Amino acid sequence: RRLALERLQARASMADLMLDLSHVLLFEDDLDVLLTGVIAYLRERFSLSLATLILRESDTRWRLRAAAGNSTQFALTPGGLWSVQRGLTGKALRLQRTLYVPDVHHDAEYVVGSALTQAELLIPIKHAGAILGLLNLESPSAESFTAEVREVLDVLADQIGGVLHLRLLQAQLTSLNRKAGALAAELARVNTRLKRSNRSLDKLSRTDALTGAENRRGFEQALRNAWRLAKTRSSRWAC
Predict the structure, then answer these.
(1) Are 219 and 114 in a shared domain?
(2) How confident is the model at residue 29, as a pLDDT?
(3) Which of 8, 23, 67, 229 has the most other CB atoms within 10 Å of its CB?
(4) DSSP secondary structure string, 33-75?
(5) pTM of the full predicted structure?
Protein backbone atom coordinates (compact mmCIF):
# COMPACT_ATOMS: atom_id res chain seq x y z
CA ARG A 1 0.00 0.00 0.00
CA ARG A 2 2.84 2.40 0.83
CA LEU A 3 4.51 1.69 -2.51
CA ALA A 4 1.25 2.33 -4.34
CA LEU A 5 0.85 5.64 -2.50
CA GLU A 6 4.39 6.67 -3.42
CA ARG A 7 3.73 5.87 -7.07
CA LEU A 8 0.50 7.86 -6.97
CA GLN A 9 2.31 10.82 -5.45
CA ALA A 10 5.04 10.58 -8.08
CA ARG A 11 2.48 10.59 -10.88
CA ALA A 12 0.69 13.56 -9.32
CA SER A 13 4.01 15.38 -9.13
CA MET A 14 4.69 14.69 -12.82
CA ALA A 15 1.18 15.87 -13.70
CA ASP A 16 1.89 19.14 -11.87
CA LEU A 17 5.14 19.47 -13.81
CA MET A 18 3.40 19.05 -17.16
CA LEU A 19 0.68 21.49 -16.14
CA ASP A 20 3.24 24.13 -15.20
CA LEU A 21 5.28 23.71 -18.36
CA SER A 22 2.25 23.43 -20.66
CA HIS A 23 1.17 26.85 -19.44
CA VAL A 24 4.56 28.28 -20.43
CA LEU A 25 4.50 26.54 -23.83
CA LEU A 26 1.00 27.75 -24.64
CA PHE A 27 1.06 31.33 -23.44
CA GLU A 28 4.63 32.62 -23.82
CA ASP A 29 5.10 34.38 -27.18
CA ASP A 30 8.83 35.06 -26.97
CA LEU A 31 10.64 31.85 -27.96
CA ASP A 32 13.86 32.67 -26.09
CA VAL A 33 11.95 33.50 -22.92
CA LEU A 34 9.95 30.28 -23.33
CA LEU A 35 13.00 28.02 -23.74
CA THR A 36 14.92 29.75 -20.96
CA GLY A 37 11.93 29.38 -18.65
CA VAL A 38 11.59 25.66 -19.39
CA ILE A 39 15.30 24.99 -18.77
CA ALA A 40 15.39 27.04 -15.57
CA TYR A 41 12.28 25.24 -14.29
CA LEU A 42 13.72 21.78 -15.00
CA ARG A 43 17.02 22.61 -13.34
CA GLU A 44 15.32 23.81 -10.17
CA ARG A 45 12.69 21.07 -10.12
CA PHE A 46 15.20 18.21 -10.40
CA SER A 47 18.22 19.88 -8.72
CA LEU A 48 20.27 19.47 -11.90
CA SER A 49 23.95 20.28 -12.18
CA LEU A 50 23.52 21.47 -15.77
CA ALA A 51 20.68 21.83 -18.27
CA THR A 52 20.99 23.00 -21.87
CA LEU A 53 18.82 23.17 -24.96
CA ILE A 54 20.34 23.43 -28.43
CA LEU A 55 18.53 23.98 -31.73
CA ARG A 56 19.48 22.87 -35.22
CA GLU A 57 20.17 25.53 -37.85
CA SER A 58 21.52 23.15 -40.49
CA ASP A 59 23.12 19.72 -40.68
CA THR A 60 26.38 21.15 -39.37
CA ARG A 61 25.30 24.18 -37.32
CA TRP A 62 23.69 24.00 -33.89
CA ARG A 63 23.21 26.84 -31.43
CA LEU A 64 22.75 26.96 -27.69
CA ARG A 65 19.39 28.63 -27.03
CA ALA A 66 18.98 28.14 -23.28
CA ALA A 67 21.14 27.02 -20.36
CA ALA A 68 20.97 26.79 -16.58
CA GLY A 69 23.76 25.72 -14.25
CA ASN A 70 27.52 26.05 -14.40
CA SER A 71 30.09 24.46 -16.66
CA THR A 72 33.83 24.38 -16.16
CA GLN A 73 34.37 23.28 -19.77
CA PHE A 74 31.97 25.24 -21.99
CA ALA A 75 30.80 28.84 -22.35
CA LEU A 76 27.05 28.74 -21.73
CA THR A 77 26.26 31.78 -23.86
CA PRO A 78 22.81 31.66 -25.51
CA GLY A 79 23.18 32.06 -29.26
CA GLY A 80 26.66 30.56 -29.37
CA LEU A 81 27.56 27.71 -31.72
CA TRP A 82 27.51 24.26 -30.12
CA SER A 83 29.61 21.28 -31.17
CA VAL A 84 27.60 18.11 -31.76
CA GLN A 85 30.41 16.00 -33.16
CA ARG A 86 31.53 14.54 -29.84
CA GLY A 87 30.37 13.53 -26.42
CA LEU A 88 26.99 12.15 -25.46
CA THR A 89 25.33 14.91 -27.48
CA GLY A 90 26.77 13.46 -30.67
CA LYS A 91 25.86 9.95 -29.58
CA ALA A 92 22.21 10.87 -28.93
CA LEU A 93 21.92 12.60 -32.30
CA ARG A 94 23.43 9.62 -34.10
CA LEU A 95 21.00 7.27 -32.36
CA GLN A 96 18.14 9.77 -32.94
CA ARG A 97 16.47 8.73 -29.70
CA THR A 98 16.50 9.45 -25.99
CA LEU A 99 19.78 8.51 -24.35
CA TYR A 100 19.96 7.88 -20.60
CA VAL A 101 23.33 7.33 -18.94
CA PRO A 102 22.98 6.62 -15.19
CA ASP A 103 26.75 6.83 -14.63
CA VAL A 104 28.53 9.02 -17.15
CA HIS A 105 31.97 7.97 -15.92
CA HIS A 106 31.37 4.51 -17.38
CA ASP A 107 30.65 5.86 -20.87
CA ALA A 108 33.74 6.31 -23.04
CA GLU A 109 32.07 9.06 -25.11
CA TYR A 110 31.26 11.26 -22.12
CA VAL A 111 32.81 14.74 -22.15
CA VAL A 112 32.79 16.57 -18.83
CA GLY A 113 30.42 19.53 -18.74
CA SER A 114 30.03 19.85 -14.99
CA ALA A 115 32.21 18.25 -12.34
CA LEU A 116 29.05 17.55 -10.31
CA THR A 117 27.39 15.41 -12.98
CA GLN A 118 26.75 11.73 -12.28
CA ALA A 119 23.84 10.96 -14.62
CA GLU A 120 22.86 12.48 -17.95
CA LEU A 121 19.64 12.42 -19.96
CA LEU A 122 19.59 13.57 -23.59
CA ILE A 123 16.28 13.86 -25.45
CA PRO A 124 16.05 14.77 -29.16
CA ILE A 125 13.38 17.39 -29.85
CA LYS A 126 11.48 16.22 -32.91
CA HIS A 127 8.54 17.08 -35.12
CA ALA A 128 7.22 14.66 -37.74
CA GLY A 129 10.40 12.60 -37.36
CA ALA A 130 12.78 15.50 -38.01
CA ILE A 131 15.19 16.50 -35.24
CA LEU A 132 14.88 20.20 -34.41
CA GLY A 133 16.97 20.30 -31.26
CA LEU A 134 18.27 18.47 -28.22
CA LEU A 135 17.43 18.69 -24.53
CA ASN A 136 20.42 17.84 -22.32
CA LEU A 137 19.91 17.35 -18.57
CA GLU A 138 22.72 16.47 -16.14
CA SER A 139 22.27 15.53 -12.49
CA PRO A 140 24.47 14.71 -9.48
CA SER A 141 22.23 11.69 -8.89
CA ALA A 142 20.69 9.04 -11.14
CA GLU A 143 17.62 9.15 -8.89
CA SER A 144 16.61 12.39 -10.62
CA PHE A 145 15.77 10.47 -13.78
CA THR A 146 13.34 7.73 -12.80
CA ALA A 147 11.39 5.89 -15.48
CA GLU A 148 8.35 8.10 -14.80
CA VAL A 149 10.43 11.26 -15.09
CA ARG A 150 12.00 10.13 -18.36
CA GLU A 151 8.58 9.32 -19.78
CA VAL A 152 7.23 12.76 -18.88
CA LEU A 153 10.30 14.54 -20.25
CA ASP A 154 9.90 12.65 -23.55
CA VAL A 155 6.38 14.07 -23.79
CA LEU A 156 7.70 17.52 -22.92
CA ALA A 157 10.29 17.30 -25.71
CA ASP A 158 7.51 16.42 -28.17
CA GLN A 159 5.53 19.45 -27.04
CA ILE A 160 8.57 21.69 -27.48
CA GLY A 161 8.99 20.22 -30.98
CA GLY A 162 5.40 21.17 -31.82
CA VAL A 163 5.94 24.71 -30.55
CA LEU A 164 9.18 25.07 -32.54
CA HIS A 165 7.48 23.83 -35.71
CA LEU A 166 4.64 26.31 -35.23
CA ARG A 167 7.07 29.19 -34.64
CA LEU A 168 9.00 28.18 -37.76
CA LEU A 169 5.82 28.26 -39.84
CA GLN A 170 4.91 31.65 -38.37
CA ALA A 171 8.36 33.01 -39.23
CA GLN A 172 8.09 31.67 -42.79
CA LEU A 173 4.61 33.18 -43.18
CA THR A 174 5.82 36.55 -41.88
CA SER A 175 8.74 36.44 -44.32
CA LEU A 176 6.44 35.56 -47.23
CA ASN A 177 4.02 38.36 -46.31
CA ARG A 178 6.92 40.82 -46.09
CA LYS A 179 8.21 39.71 -49.49
CA ALA A 180 4.70 39.87 -50.99
CA GLY A 181 4.27 43.41 -49.64
CA ALA A 182 7.63 44.48 -51.07
CA LEU A 183 6.76 42.89 -54.43
CA ALA A 184 3.36 44.63 -54.54
CA ALA A 185 5.02 47.98 -53.79
CA GLU A 186 7.61 47.40 -56.52
CA LEU A 187 4.88 46.44 -59.02
CA ALA A 188 3.00 49.63 -58.16
CA ARG A 189 6.15 51.69 -58.78
CA VAL A 190 6.77 49.92 -62.11
CA ASN A 191 3.14 50.46 -63.12
CA THR A 192 3.42 54.18 -62.33
CA ARG A 193 6.60 54.46 -64.40
CA LEU A 194 4.96 52.60 -67.31
CA LYS A 195 1.95 54.92 -67.27
CA ARG A 196 4.25 57.94 -67.25
CA SER A 197 6.26 56.48 -70.14
CA ASN A 198 3.10 55.69 -72.11
CA ARG A 199 1.88 59.26 -71.73
CA SER A 200 5.23 60.56 -72.94
CA LEU A 201 5.25 58.18 -75.91
CA ASP A 202 1.69 59.11 -76.81
CA LYS A 203 2.58 62.80 -76.73
CA LEU A 204 5.66 62.21 -78.88
CA SER A 205 3.66 60.17 -81.40
CA ARG A 206 1.28 63.13 -81.91
CA THR A 207 3.98 65.79 -82.27
CA ASP A 208 6.27 66.65 -85.18
CA ALA A 209 9.85 66.08 -84.11
CA LEU A 210 11.18 69.19 -85.94
CA THR A 211 8.52 71.82 -85.33
CA GLY A 212 6.86 70.56 -82.16
CA ALA A 213 3.47 71.07 -83.80
CA GLU A 214 0.85 68.36 -83.85
CA ASN A 215 1.25 65.95 -86.75
CA ARG A 216 -1.47 64.15 -88.68
CA ARG A 217 -1.94 61.60 -85.86
CA GLY A 218 -2.30 64.44 -83.38
CA PHE A 219 -4.80 66.15 -85.64
CA GLU A 220 -6.86 62.96 -85.99
CA GLN A 221 -6.81 62.40 -82.24
CA ALA A 222 -7.94 65.98 -81.61
CA LEU A 223 -10.71 65.51 -84.18
CA ARG A 224 -11.91 62.32 -82.45
CA ASN A 225 -11.90 64.06 -79.08
CA ALA A 226 -13.90 66.98 -80.49
CA TRP A 227 -16.37 64.58 -82.11
CA ARG A 228 -16.93 62.70 -78.82
CA LEU A 229 -17.45 66.01 -77.01
CA ALA A 230 -19.97 67.16 -79.62
CA LYS A 231 -21.91 63.89 -79.35
CA THR A 232 -22.03 64.21 -75.57
CA ARG A 233 -23.39 67.75 -75.77
CA SER A 234 -25.87 66.73 -78.47
CA SER A 235 -27.21 63.96 -76.24
CA ARG A 236 -27.68 66.41 -73.36
CA TRP A 237 -29.60 68.88 -75.58
CA ALA A 238 -31.82 66.08 -76.89
CA CYS A 239 -32.88 65.32 -73.33
Answers:
(1) no
(2) 79
(3) 67
(4) HHHHHHHHHHHHHHT-SEEEEEEESSSS-EEEEEEEE--SSS-
(5) 0.69
